[in-house]
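note to self — DONT lose this again. spent like an hour looking for the file last time. sequence + predicted structure for the chain T wanted, 61 res
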Amino acid sequence: MTLQISQRGKEYLRTAKTLLRSAKAMTDQVIAAQLKALADDHERRVKKTSLDGASDCSIRR
């Protein structure tokens, strides 16, 4: 199955992945939680801006 994600959605997804990678490397749990919350927000934005199959789009696979 091929997902069609808009260019804006791709940018949100790329940012979300970067935020999650940073959160996993954090030793400060408060900052890590904030980064994860930002990643979740960006993932929601991907779903809003995507053309097709947005409900299947997840960065946590």
